[in-house]
Structures are given as C-alpha cells and as structure tokens.
C-alpha cells in the first residue's frame, strides 16, 4: 500500500444557477492574457448541450483518455508511444480554435467617437487573433440556457441512445448547468500523452501541472485529455491548464472558482488513496464498473491502520486530520452521492458531481405531479427514463441504477427534513429504503444545506517550512506568478487588437459636461498620463 | 588559378567559423537564459488543413536531405571508392534519392511558407525571426534542389564531392580548401552561404526544437510524479528582454 493525498472537489449541481461568476473570476486571475483569450480553465456549460470545445465528450472523434487494448492492458486511446513520436509534426486529434470559438472584441471606438446625433452607431466584431473583421459563429457558451436548442442540443454526445425520445418529448425539456475545471485525475492521460515529460502530478496533493520551462509545445496533452482541459497558448506556444489555484491551496485557501461561487455549491477537501491500486482500477474491463472501482482506491482515514500507513508514507498529521474532516470524502465516498464525470474515460477524475434532482422534478412537474411531494418524486425517479439515463451517460457510463440511488438519497434528505420541519416523526423507513441511517441523513443534510465556509473548504496548508526560508527573501521582491507570459501582476491584460488602437495614449471621450475625459477602460497604462487630468487652467470644479 | 582574395577568405573561412561559434555559444545562451522560449511554436490550433500535409512532408523531406548530406558531404569520395562503389552508381543513387527528397521538401516548404504568409491567423503569431528562418530555408532548399535535379538527374552532373565537400570537411580539420570552393558553381556557393547563416540564426529561432526530440518517451513511465520542491520564481523584468539566467540563484 502506498498512501497518497489528493485535493479534490465536489460540486452540487442542484445549486448551480449558471451565473458564470466562477468562469469570470477564474479568467481574471489566470487567463486574462494574450494567447489565452479563448481559454476558460473553469467553464460552465448547459446540459444538454454540445459543451466546450464542441462535442469534446465524443472520444470516437477526439480520441482522448485511455482504452483497454486487446489484451486488456491500459493504453492511450490515441495510440501507442511510437505512433506518437511519428506523429509529432501533425497531431491528428487536436481541436481547432473554431471548436472553442475564435476570440473577438468589438470596435468600440466607432461608438465612442461617433459624432453626436449619429443614429445607432454600431461596433462591429474584430478577431483578437488577427485584428481583422470577423463574423462571430461560435463561442464557449453559444448554447447557454439551451439557446438554439433544437439545432445544437441534439449534438450532445450524452444524448446518444436517447436522441429520438428527447426530440419527441421536447415539451418535457429539462436542463441544468455543468461547471467544469480540470479533474486533476488520479490517472491523468494528459500527463501520459506529454512526450517531453513536462506535465506531472504533484506527489503532495495530486495537483496536475505543466512545467512551462520544459514544455516544448508538442501539443499532445491537449488532445490526450478527454475533458479538453489542457489549452494551447498560441502566443507562447505552451500548454496551460487549470492549476487548482495551487498558490491558494498551499496556503489553505479555496480555489478562486470555489471562493467566488454564488451558489456556494463547491466543496474542497482531501482524499487518501492507495497509489498502487490506481492502475488496476483504471483497467476494470466493464466501463459501468469503473465508478465502483474508482471508489475502491480510497482509504478510510478513520481506520487506524490507514492512518499509520499514511504517516509512514510521509503524510503529515494535520493532513491526516484534514482527511478525516474532508467534505469530499464524506460526499463522494461515505455517502456516495457525488459521482465522477465520465468514468469511462478511465482517468479517475477527482472533481465529483452531486447529480441534480431538478431535471427529474421538472419532468415530474410537466407530467402533472407536485414536485414538492416526495412520494411523487420517488415515483418519478423510478419511472422516468430520459433525465435519469441522460445523467447516467454523464456520470456512470450509462448505469442508471447508480444515478437512481443517488437521486433517491437526495430526495430522502428532502422528505425527512420536510417531516422534521412540519413536526412529524420522519421514522426510519425512508432512510432505510435508500440504505442510510437517520444519522447519515442528518449528516448529509448538514453538508448539503448548511455547511459553512470552514466546513465546505477543509484544506491543510502545505508543509514548506524549509522552502519558505529559502525563498522568502526572493519572494518579497516580486510575485511568484510574474513569469514571462504568466498570469502575475506583470500582465497588461489584452492589448488592443492589432492595428486598431494606438498604444500608449488613454482614449478620450467627451463627457456630458462637454469636457474631454480619459477612458481608463482599455488603456494599456503606458504613454502620457498627463492626459488623465483636466486642463489646469481655471477649470477646477 | 590566381590566388585567393580577402573576400574569398571572408565567405569561405571567416563566415563559417563565425557561424559555428554563434551556433554553439547561442545554444548555450538560449538554454540557460531562455528555456521558456525553447519551443516549436505550433500553429496547428489556428490552421490544420494545410499543416497536415506541409509539416510532415517538410520534416520527413528535411530528414532525408540531412541524411543525404551526411553521405555526400561528410563521407569522402575515397571512402565510397574503397568500398568498391563506382562513381556512376553513386551519382545515380544520389541523384534519384536526392531528387525524391528534394520534391518532398519543396512541396512541404511551399505549403508551410505560403501558409505562413497567406493565412492571417498564422501570420498573426509569426515573429520576425520566423520569417528570417523561413526565407533562409527557402533559399537553401531552392539552391539545393536546382543542382540536384537540373545538373545531376537531367544534366551532365557536377561532382560536388571534389570541391564543396572537401572544403566543408577542411573547415573541421583547420585547413579549408578555399580555392576548391571558389571554383564551384554559384548555386553551390549561395547554398553553402545561406546554410551558414542559418546555423547562426538557429539558436535564436524556433529551430532549437529539433534538439528536443523526446526519444525517452518510449521508455519512461506514463504518469510522471514530481515533488513540489522549491521552484525559484523568475527574475523580475525578464519579460521582453531575455538575457537573465533562468531557474534559480545564479
Ligand atoms: C527532430 C525532430 C523534429 C521534430 C519532432 C519537429 C517537430 C515540429 C513541430 C511539432 C512543429 C510545429 C508544427 C505545428 O505548427 O504544429 C515544427 C515546426 C517546424 N519545424 Fe520541426 N521538428 C523537428 C526537426 C526539424 C528540423 C531538423 C527542421 C529544419 C531543418 C525543422 C524546421 C521546422 C520549421 C521551419 C517549422 C515551422 C513550420 C511552420 O512554418 O509552421 N524541424 N517542427
Ligand atoms: S482532466 Fe485534468 S488531469 Fe485529467 S486528463 Fe484532463 S488535464 Fe489531465
Ligand atoms: S459561480 Fe457557482 S453558481 Fe455560478 S455558474 Fe459557477 S458554479 Fe454555478
């Protein structure tokens, strides 16, 4: 047994309101730089929908992740190592930037500078890639909230086998949001695809990173990741990906997406797992058994034997304690209400999802049931095929039974708490029917409904006592993220699109008071700052 | 033959040695000060339909051409004669093989060059040094292909192994045969000169990616684990100007 610690996340999908705050804050922190305009380390997609990049889940097309070869051994879906080296000059599985959406901005100047009285001056779209005028055809959220539903949604790979039914019953439409970040997989195919060995999984916390000084831009990680969560910075020629906000995690803070989540639906905590069991779990023959196999690699931090082994593997005491209090362990392993996204990709993803009850409740409502009536919801969970099988395609490689059990557990929490609220005795029958004790229900209720900041984020700080002393002086001088092309304070944000705006001067506009003002939005911070201030000649107000 | 002038010395002795020095020192400098920039700067994300043909054709053609140079320029004529390979056989072999490689390289670089200049997305990510390297490669390929096909395959043939090759090998033994090179046809002279300039440009361009062929991928474990360790942040102000040492205390 080789005990390792993994920082993992759970998202409770019923609470996501699709506000994209997480995507925006993540973008501001990590990808607000030239070369990454099209990149969202955190994105939120509407399901059913084609996702970002388009149809990324269809591995027959993109060939990401792992497969079993004829002898049952785990190999990369894109082919063996030798083949990789022969394909160095052209990667046949790489998505094009059009699959993500070509980044664009607007020629705001025509609007700002339009002479008074111009009727409807309009800003046209400019590609931030080329600086040329462009027609916008696709972007990361073009099918948000089922926009263009009949046209786009049927292309969702998760609808396979359900397509006809969904189209016929479109009055019974259901939808929910799926926020996605890198899964920081236990068996990362991105790392395995990188010929340079520039990508690695950190021993201490399992975060998957790209060493920017070792990446040579061979771009195989991009296609190797089945979730398409490694991105190519076309300016620096390097792969970049979600870092799990490691500088924050190291200091015990939640990731930016979690910290700013409006729905407070994200949980962060440790999982202890047996690294020696990973390969066997990922090689499980039947994809529908992969979820159980994945659960089997985790170790119970309440078990004294596991704690002793963890200590022997060099995991510090406070980390083991944190693993015991981990909300991720509770939701994913103990209560089994959080499921991995597409376990059939065999990467053992470490971002877990509590499937939404709302699609079932929605459909129950459309059929005339009262969604607040737990009996009806239970009946709907058992009777309905479409939303449940759709969720199963997302989270259990199509095994609807597992999804049904999770949904029943979630419904049971509601039913029991409703009785408690109404002063009725909930009894033990409902909990037992979903394989839980009343205490489990209570624990789950606390985690799902009232968990406070410190209960949702249980993140032990990194042990860097010696390293800190060495780098302390160095770091006082400047920010450690301030690398070349990096996301640190040195970045200037997007430059104006090529050939459009003169750099240096803050753009001016005429205010309602008739005077010229500098527009700080879009100014790159260089040039003559004196224009920022109004003329001094007696104009002071 | 009437002696060797100063200009000849410059082109056929000084330039090669300067280029070799820049090549070696430049690589050491680039590795130590700009490992971040050591990259192939793929543009496949932006354009893949032309690249699909251009990049493999160019690279495989270039590898064949490099192999041909090793055989034709580095291996002396006395060696093949000692093996008992008649000059006629050698010439036909090199003419046919060379012509094949030449066609592949020409098609490849034609696709790559036109893509770089005509596809606006690719042009937008092209640095000046990329154009320099590309133009040099174009000159080298064209001046390399003309004699291969024109003279050796279709024409009377010109035995560069008696002039260009000894001069080239002489550079490495310290006694370059300048007279032999001066007497060579102009195509060969242009070809050789552009090649030396390319060697000098190499360490400062994307061409450094050629040295990073990751052969060890064949036997390393699939999943790489690395300890967090101490990573020194880069020095402030290295963005833009690239002459400070990277990766830790000096
Ligand atoms: C040693 C093995 C080599 C490998 C694995 C390799 C790989 C690559 C890759 C992956 C690209 C980027 C293609 C893309 O845009 O996606 C590239 C571009 C390029 N390589 Fe190589 N290369 C090698 C050797 C060479 C050599 C020896 C030369 C020159 C003689 C060369 C010249 C170029 C040039 C000029 C480009 C830019 C093409 C363009 O205009 O887009 N490469 N190479
Ligand atoms: S989800 Fe993250 S860790 Fe998993 S394969 Fe993709 S990039 Fe790698
Ligand atoms: S911030 Fe939270 S609620 Fe809003 S889209 Fe992101 S995950 Fe959903």
TrEMBL record, chain A:
Requisite cofactors: [3Fe-4S] cluster; [4Fe-4S] cluster
Enzyme Commission no: 1.7.99.4
Protein name: Nitrate reductase beta subunit
Keyword Ubl conjugation annotated: no
GO cellular component assignments: cell envelope; membrane; nitrate reductase complex
Protein keywords: 4Fe-4S, Electron transport, Iron, Iron-sulfur, Metal-binding, Oxidoreductase, Repeat, Transport
Pfam families given in the database record: Fer4_11, Nitr_red_bet_C
Any GO BP: nitrate metabolic process
Record-linked NCBIfam families: narH
Domain 4Fe-4S ferredoxin-type: start-end pairs: 7-35, 173-204, 206-235
Automatic annotation (TrEMBL), chain B:
Listed InterPro entries: Heme-iron_electron_transfer (IPR051936), NarG-like_domain (IPR023234), NarG-like_sf (IPR036197), Nitrate_red_gam (IPR003816)
Membrane topology of this protein: Multi-pass membrane protein
Family: In the C-terminal section; belongs to the nitrate reductase gamma subunit family.
Keywords: Cell membrane, Electron transport, Heme, Iron, Membrane, Metal-binding, Nitrate assimilation, Oxidoreductase, Transmembrane, Transmembrane helix, Transport
Chief location: membrane
Names of the cofactor(s): Mo-bis(molybdopterin guanine dinucleotide); heme b
PANTHER family, per the entry: NITRATE REDUCTASE PRIVATE CHAPERONE, REDOX ENZYME MATURATION PROTEIN REMP FAMILY (PTHR30598), RESPIRATORY NITRATE REDUCTASE 1 GAMMA CHAIN (PTHR30598:SF3)
Source organism (scientific name): Streptosporangium saharense
Pfam families membership: Nitrate_red_gam
Recorded GO MF terms: electron transfer activity; heme binding; metal ion binding; nitrate reductase activity
Function field: Does not seem to have nitrate reductase activity.
GO process annotations (BP): anaerobic electron transport chain; nitrate assimilation
Every NarG-like domain range: 9-228
Gene Ontology CC: one annotated term: plasma membrane
Transmembrane regions: 12-29, 57-77, 89-112, 132-153, 196-219
Protein name as it appears in the record: Nitrate reductase-like protein NarX
Coiled coil spans: none
Compartments, as annotated in UniProt: Cell membrane
Positions contributing to heme b binding: 59, 69, 191, 209
């Amino acid at each position: 047994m080789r005990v390792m610690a993994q920082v993992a996340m759970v998202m409770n999908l019923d609470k996501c309101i699709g506000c994209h705050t997480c995507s925006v804050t993540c973008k501001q922190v990590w990808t607000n730089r030239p070369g990454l305009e099209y990149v969202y380390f955190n994105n939120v997609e509407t399901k059913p929908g084609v996702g970002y990049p388009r149809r990324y889940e269809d591995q027959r097309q993109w060939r990401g992740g792992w497969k079993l070869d004829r002898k049952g051994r785990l190999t990369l879906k894109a082919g063996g190592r030798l083949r990789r080296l022969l394909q160095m000059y052209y990667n046949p599985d790489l998505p094009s930037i059009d699959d993500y959406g070509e980044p664009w901005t607007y020629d705001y100047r025509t609007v700002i500078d339009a002479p008074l009285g111009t009727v409807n001056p309009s800003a046209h779209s400019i590609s931030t890639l080329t600086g040329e005028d462009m027609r916008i055809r696709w972007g990361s959220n073009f099918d948000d909230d089922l926009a263009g539903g009949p046209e786009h949604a049927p292309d969702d790979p998760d609808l396979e086998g359900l397509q006809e039914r969904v189209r016929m019953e479109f009055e019974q439409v259901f939808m929910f949001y799926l926020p996605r970040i890198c899964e920081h997989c236990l068996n990362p195919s991105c790392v395995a695809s990188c010929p340079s060995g520039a990508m690695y999984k950190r021993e201490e916390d399992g975060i998957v990173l790209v060493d920017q000084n070792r990446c040579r831009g061979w771009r195989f990680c991009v296609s190797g990741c089945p979730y398409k969560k490694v991105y190519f910075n076309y300016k620096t020629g390097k792969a970049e990906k979600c870092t799990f906000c490691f500088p924050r995690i190291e200091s015990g803070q939640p990731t930016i997406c979690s910290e700013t989540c409006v729905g407070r639906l994200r949980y962060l905590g440790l999982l202890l797992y047996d690294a020696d069991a990973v390969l066997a779990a990922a090689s499980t023959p039947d994809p529908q058994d992969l979820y159980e196999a994945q659960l089997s690699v985790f170790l119970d931090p309440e078990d004294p034997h596991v704690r002793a082994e963890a200590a022997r593997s060099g995991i510090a005491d406070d980390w083991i304690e944190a693993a015991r209090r981990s909300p991720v362990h509770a939701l994913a392993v103990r209560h089994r209400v959080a499921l991995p996204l597409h376990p059939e990709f065999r990467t053992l993803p470490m971002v877990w999802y509590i499937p939404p009850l709302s699609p079932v409740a929605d459909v129950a409502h459309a059929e005339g049931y009262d969604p607040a009536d737990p009996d009806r919801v239970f009946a709907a969970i058992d009777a309905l095929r479409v939303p449940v099988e759709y969720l199963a395609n997302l989270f259990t490689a199509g095994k609807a039974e597992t999804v049904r059990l999770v949904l029943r557990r979630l419904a049971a929490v509601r039913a029991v708490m409703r009785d408690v609220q109404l002063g009725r005795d909930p009894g033990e029958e409902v909990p037992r029917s979903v394989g839980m004790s009343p205490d489990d229900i209570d624990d789950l209720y606390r985690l799902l409904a009232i968990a406070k900041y410190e209960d949702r984020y249980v993140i032990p700080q990194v042990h860097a006592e010696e390293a800190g002393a060495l780098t302390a002086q160095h770091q006082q001088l400047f920010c450690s993220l301030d690398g070349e092309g990096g996301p640190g304070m040195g970045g200037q944000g997007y430059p104006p699109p090529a050939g459009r705006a003169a750099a240096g001067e803050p753009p001016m506009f005429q205010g309602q008071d008739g005077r010229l003002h500098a527009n700080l939005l879009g100014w790159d911070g260089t040039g003559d700052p004196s224009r920022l201030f109004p003329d001094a000649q007696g104009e002071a107000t | 033959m009437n002696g060797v002038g100063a200009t000849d010395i410059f082109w056929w002795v000084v330039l090669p040695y300067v280029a070799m020095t820049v090549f070696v020192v430049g690589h050491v400098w680039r590795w130590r000060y700009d490992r971040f920039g050591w990259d192939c700067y793929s543009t496949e994300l932006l354009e893949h339909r032309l690249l699909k043909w251009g990049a493999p054709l160019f690279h495989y053609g270039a590898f064949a051409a490099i192999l041909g140079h090793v055989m034709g320029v580095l291996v002396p004529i006395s060696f093949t004669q000692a093996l008992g390979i008649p000059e006629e056989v050698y010439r036909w072999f090199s003419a046919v093989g060379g012509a094949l490689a030449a066609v592949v390289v020409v098609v490849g670089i034609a696709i790559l060059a036109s893509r770089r200049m005509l596809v606006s997305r690719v042009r937008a990510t092209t640095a000046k040094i990329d154009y320099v390297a590309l133009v040099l490669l174009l000159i080298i390929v064209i001046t390399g292909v003309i004699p291969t096909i024109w003279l050796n395959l279709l024409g009377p043939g010109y035995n560069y192994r008696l002039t260009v090759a000894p001069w080239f090998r002489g550079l490495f033994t310290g006694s370059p045969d300048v007279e032999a090179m001066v007497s060579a046809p102009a195509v060969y002279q242009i070809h050789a000169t552009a090649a030396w300039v390319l060697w000098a440009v190499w360490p400062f361009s994307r061409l450094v990616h050629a040295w990073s062929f990751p052969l060890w991928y064949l036997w390393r474990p699939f999943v790489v684990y690395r300890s967090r360790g101490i990573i020194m942040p880069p020095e402030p102000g290295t963005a833009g100007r690239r002459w400070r040492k990277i990766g830790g205390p000096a």
